[in-house]
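Hi all, posting the design record for the shared folder.

TITLE: backbone redesign
STEP: 1 of 1
STRUCTURE INPUT:
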């Protein structure tokens, strides 16, 4: 059963009298267990829908819809499938106590992998899940492979019952499903031979394995189950060299690099980031693969849209990882706008100084970086630090942080998104709400 959260006005559902709270039971006689069933079993133009209205009345609707007509139903959020692992590198295990509850939720859900590109280990798949993946053709999936040698994967996931991922992938790819893979690389556990074997196994899937991202392990000061070696420049370099060997082969044989090091690996190894052409359609950008290159591209494309704002003093807050790359970008912005940019490198007070990603800075870091800076006309902060409700990871509200600071503060994804409006009298906020 799935339950209706909202009904769009003038939609098929509202005409039928379906209201919030209605339970949708079956479509064409098949049980509706979740949003996937709802999507796929009601995809035809005509179907029979059994529902229970909030007053308990059970109704059967014969639905026929024309081209482009939608039901107008938004479902209640699904119960997310929890993970059965305790990965060496689990970021959630590295969270401090006392944060808001949803941050501690360890989801491992193939349905969200298909729907939103969340990575899933597939370690909690049941027979019924395999059947659904194949029947609904849930492709591509985003799979946290981490290692293909079974014993290494059990160790990495701290789960002796984890299934053999190669067999699982064989099963779904035999049914025409493609996947993007990721490996969080832990020196001493899945680098060197394990990495080599894993890339060989994944490459053997041919076109079914669309891409592989190699991401360096990232720990906070609270990570307590880690047994690997430290991820230093030497390890990062070795991992990138392995990736490049496979990427050269893939480029020759498949016409694309196929395996990609995340930006963080390049920064750790102090090696230049590849150009945009290397990343193709940036399929793993959410995984930090090509994000910096994409940012550079967006800035370059946006420069011509920027107004002259000569002499304005603009603070740009970022984390330590991005700081070395910023001066070149800010120079370009200065040339285009005439503004004076000041790079402000913030340290992560919640997760500790080992966490250097700009997007994980918290409200307290922004406050500390900008308080008392009456010399700045405005400040830009990474928009990724704030969720859809305008809240930082430390539960501070963006509006409160903004109110406490002496200059206007704007969340920004690529500088251009804010600066292109800066000659207008009222600048709209990007990326955050007052909610
Ligand atoms: S799969 Fe691993 S990394 Fe992901 S939530 Fe579970 S324990 Fe954490």
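Okay, here is what came back for every position:
SEQUENCE:
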């Amino acid at each position: 059963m799935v339950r209706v959260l909202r009904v769009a006005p003038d939609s098929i559902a509202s005409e039928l009298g379906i209201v919030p709270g209605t339970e949708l039971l079956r479509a064409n006689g098949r049980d509706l267990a979740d949003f996937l069933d709802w999507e796929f079993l009601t995809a035809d133009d005509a179907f029979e829908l059994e529902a229970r209205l909030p007053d308990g009345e059970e109704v059967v609707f014969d639905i026929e819809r024309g081209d482009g007509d939608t039901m107008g139903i938004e479902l209640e959020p699904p119960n997310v499938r929890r993970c059965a692992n305790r990965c060496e590198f689990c970021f959630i295990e590295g969270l401090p106590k006392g944060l808001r509850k949803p941050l501690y939720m360890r989801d491992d859900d193939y349905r969200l992998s298909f729907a939103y590109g969340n990575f899933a280990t597939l370690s909690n798949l049941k027979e019924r899940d395999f059947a659904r993946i194949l029947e609904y053709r849930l492709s591509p999936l985003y799979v946290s492979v981490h290692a293909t040698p079974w014993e290494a994967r059990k160790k990495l996931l701290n789960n002796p019952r984890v299934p053999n991922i190669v067999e699982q992938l064989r099963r779904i790819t035999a049914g025409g499903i493609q996947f993007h893979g990721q490996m969080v690389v832990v020196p001493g556990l899945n680098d060197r031979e394990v990495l080599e074997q894993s890339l060989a196994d994944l490459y053997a899937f041919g076109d079914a394995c669309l891409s592989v991202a190699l991401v360096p392990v990232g720990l906070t000061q609270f990570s307590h189950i880690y047994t690997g070696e430290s991820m230093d420049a030497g390890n990062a370099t070795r991992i990138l060299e392995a990736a490049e060997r496979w990427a050269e082969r893939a480029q020759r044989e498949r016409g694309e690099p196929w395996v990609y090091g995340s930006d963080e690996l390049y920064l750790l190894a102090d090696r230049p980031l590849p150009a945009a052409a290397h990343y193709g359609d940036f399929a793993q950008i959410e995984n930090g693969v090509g994000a910096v290159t994409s940012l550079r591209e967006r800035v370059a494309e946006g420069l011509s849209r920027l107004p002259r704002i000569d002499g304005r003093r603009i603070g740009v807050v970022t984390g330590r990882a991005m700081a070395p790359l910023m001066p070149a970008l800010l120079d370009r912005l200065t040339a285009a706008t005439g503004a004076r940019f000041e790079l402000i490198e913030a340290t992560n007070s919640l997760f500790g100084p080992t966490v250097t990603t700009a997007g994980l800075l918290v409200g307290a870091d922004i406050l500390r970086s900008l308080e008392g800076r009456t010399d700045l006309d405005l400040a830009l902060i990474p928009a990724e630090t704030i969720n859809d409700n305008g809240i930082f990871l430390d539960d501070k509200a963006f509006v409160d942080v903004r109110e406490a600071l002496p200059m206007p503060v704007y969340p920004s994804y690529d500088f251009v998104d804010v600066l292109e409006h800066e000659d207008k009298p009222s600048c709209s906020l990007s990326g955050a709400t007052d909610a």
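COMMENT: Residues 83, 85-87, 90, 92, 106, 108, 121 surround iron/sulfur cluster (CB under 6 Å).
Let me know if anyone wants the other runs.
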